[in-house]
Design goal:
Elements lengths: L1 H24 L2 H22 L7 H12 L9 E2 L2 E2 L4 H14 L3 H26 L14 H8 L4 H17 L3 H12 L9 H11 L2 H8 L2 E3 L6 E3 L2 H4 L1 H6 L1 H8 L19 H4 L2 H23 L6 H18 L11 H17 L16 H7 L4 H15 L6 H20 L12 H9 L1
Antiparallel strand pairs: 1-2, 3-4
Helix pairs in contact: 2-5, 3-4, 4-5, 5-7, 7-8, 9-17, 15-17, 17-20, 18-19, 19-20
Enzyme class: transferase
Pfam families: ALG3 (PF05208)
Subcellular location: Endoplasmic reticulum membrane
Length: about 450
């Protein structure tokens, strides 16, 4: 009996040792769960003990109240911070939030605390799928004072748009392009900044599908898990009540891409004199820089293995002609590597961030969660990566921003972009990887 008991104890001890050995060898998943748990405690403490910052919440509630009372003229939907400047999806989602919270701040903070944790969990999942960042560097995703504040102390709509964007990215990673486009449209309907992801997303769609498939996805139709149900999401449908009643007012307010932000509140380009900052010439120069950088990265980086951007477009046109000539309705799709999808999306958005004329403090949420990924994609030493990350966080916590913090932020952004430019591009399609990328993943 004693012998059996001793044998059982040795067996259990062996299993325990094997479990801990496996844990030490593959620590990323347990560390991710520990990170989520620790951050949930931190969020709870912030809500409980850090005072709420009144900025836009009252304005949101005023605009929603006007909408719920029957106002459909966007020019009449206003708050104490000004007129409503977001698409109709913003009104729908904040109407639901007002219904759930009664318009009260504290319940809304709890709701946004859950939203923060959901977004963090989605982002951590993306990082686990890509396996670009070492396990310990996942902790960087929870170290931003500013991002915690944006979510649970200020309740900005950027939080909802960002979370939906990350959810759309997961759908795209799993090659669910139509579903991803629907979720992406939902994010755009809350805040237009999500359109910074549109150029790289369109390029990925062109690479993964034929032209017919791209058009179908852009139309917003989705077939879910081979079922016969289709659902169509269009920005025009979301805004239909406003388009039918006051179309000019809705389009001019909700989709005003030429809106000039106040120089004082900008975190970037603060070193530029205000008269130049608000000028059309400065805006045009940034737009040209944005489009040029996108084209350069698309041609020389994202489409490098296909022979360049124009080669990709030409091949798709040839495919379409052959499909029409053969009268073959079957699509010619290719599966993209997860790393290639995430890199293209994150870098494309980052280029837009660099070239944005004005970045308000809440806009940090637009790209913060991509920073560790971008830093580890660049061929920097770890110490430099951490210093660059800390520098970006420092700049976003200087209030009010000044010329020095603004110059520092721009310099750090350009260093990161330069690192991404000289990094080795991953092979875009499933079925073949470079030896270098494979060895890097094994090392991690």
């Amino acid at each position: 009996m004693a012998a059996k008991s001793a044998a059982a104890m040795r067996k259990n001890s062996h299993r325990s040792d094997h479990f801990f050995q496996k844990l030490m060898k593959h620590p990323k998943l347990p560390f991710a769960f520990a990170l989520l748990f620790a951050d949930s405690i931190l969020v709870t403490l912030i809500i409980a003990y850090v005072p709420y910052t009144k900025i836009d919440w009252d304005a949101y509630m005023s605009q929603v109240t006007g909408f719920l009372e029957g106002e459909r003229d966007y020019s009449n939907l206003k708050g104490d911070t000004g007129p409503l400047v977001y698409p109709a999806g913003f009104l729908y989602i904040y109407s639901a939030i007002q219904y759930v919270t009664g318009g009260q701040v504290y319940p809304a903070q709890i709701l946004f605390g859950f939203l923060y944790m959901l977004d963090l969990a989605i982002v951590v999942f993306i990082y686990l799928k890509t396996d670009v960042v070492p396990w310990w560097a996942l902790s960087l995703l929870s170290l931003s004072k500013r991002v915690h504040s944006i979510f649970v102390l200020r309740l900005f709509n950027d939080c909802l748009a960002t979370t939906l964007l990350h959810a759309a990215l997961i759908s795209i990673i799993y090659q669910k392009w139509h579903l991803g486009l629907v979720i992406f449209s939902g994010a755009v309907s809350i805040k237009m900044n999500v359109l910074l992801y549109a150029p790289p997303l369109l390029l990925l769609m062109v690479k993964a599908m034929d032209i017919v498939g791209v058009i179908s996805a852009l139309a917003g139709a989705a077939l879910v898990q081979r079922s016969s149900y289709k659902f169509v999401v269009h920005m025009i449908v979301i805004g239909l009540p406003f388009v039918l009643s006051h179309p000019a007012s809705y389009i001019s307010k909700a989709f005003d891409l030429g809106r000039v932000f106040i120089h004082f509140w900008s975190v970037n380009f603060k070193f530029v004199p205000e008269e130049i900052f608000v000028s059309k010439a400065f805006a045009l120069s940034l737009l040209v820089a944005h489009l040029s950088l996108l084209l350069i990265f698309a041609h020389y980086r994202w489409c490098r293995h296909e022979g360049g951007l124009f080669a990709v477009v030409h091949s798709k046109i040839i495919q379409l002609k052959l499909r029409v000539a053969r009268r073959d309705p079957s699509p010619t799709n290719r599966v993209l590597q997860t790393d290639h999808i995430v890199t293209t999306m994150f870098v494309g958005n980052f280029i837009g961030i660099i070239c944005a004329r004005s970045l308000h403090y809440q806009f940090y949420s637009w790209y913060f969660y991509s920073l560790p990924y971008l830093l580890w994609k660049a061929p920097f030493i770890t110490l430099l990566r951490l210093l660059l990350f800390a520098a970006v966080e420092f700049c976003w916590n200087v209030f009010p921003s000044n010329s020095y913090s603004s110059i520092l932020l721009l310099c750090v952004h350009l260093i990161i972009l330069g690192g991404l430019w000289i990094s080795s591009p991953e092979y875009p399609y499933v079925g073949k990887t470079t030896d270098k990328s494979s060895s890097e993943k094994k090392a991690r």
